[in-house]
């Protein structure tokens, strides 16, 4: 469901892999009985009209049902825990000109990428909390 990498792609304003995330949330938030019924009715193919009408902008994510919001929230927390440092540590390093300049160009670029990823994840936490 989530592709080869097993991850969803988030941008600053919306989910870029919205179809995969919408399907995953829908399935993971179903009861076992709902899932069986959905599967028996070939629901996998009949959702195209519903999915066309439901884009996953960040505003839409904030309106998800509570179980889906909780699932997203917990997933984001797990993702943030997988980093070696938190958002504040990245911000502090970016603001410390002397320490930043001691980093190699590659380390600086990696810092910017991590910081951007963490900012997006924190934004998502606020939306679904």
TrEMBL record:
GO terms for cellular component: nucleus. Its main location: nucleus. GO terms for biological process: methylation. Keywords: Methyltransferase, Nucleus, S-adenosyl-L-methionine, Transferase. The keyword Signal does not apply. One of its GO terms (molecular function) is methyltransferase activity. SUPFAM superfamilies: RuBisCo LSMT C-terminal, substrate-binding domain. The keyword S-adenosyl-L-methionine applies. It is found in: Nucleus. Pfam families: Rubis-subs-bind (PF09273). Residues 4-121 form the Rubisco LSMT substrate-binding domain. This is N-lysine methyltransferase SETD6. It comes from Chroicocephalus maculipennis. The lineage of its organism: Eukaryota, Metazoa, Chordata, Craniata, Vertebrata.
């Amino acid at each position: 469901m989530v592709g080869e990498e097993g991850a969803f792609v988030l941008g600053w304003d919306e989910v870029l892999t919205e179809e995969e995330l919408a399907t995953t949330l829908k399935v993971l938030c179903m009861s076992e009985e709902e899932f069986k019924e959905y599967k028996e009715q070939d629901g996998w193919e009949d959702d195209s009209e519903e999915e066309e009408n439901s884009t996953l902008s960040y505003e839409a994510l904030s309106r998800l049902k509570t179980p889906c919001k909780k699932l997203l929230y917990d997933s984001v927390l797990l993702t943030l825990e997988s980093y070696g440092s938190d958002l504040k540590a990245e911000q502090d390093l970016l603001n410390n000109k002397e320490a930043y300049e001691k980093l190699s160009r590659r380390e600086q670029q990696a810092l910017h990428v991590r910081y951007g990823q963490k900012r997006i994840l924190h934004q998502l936490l606020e939306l679904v909390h």
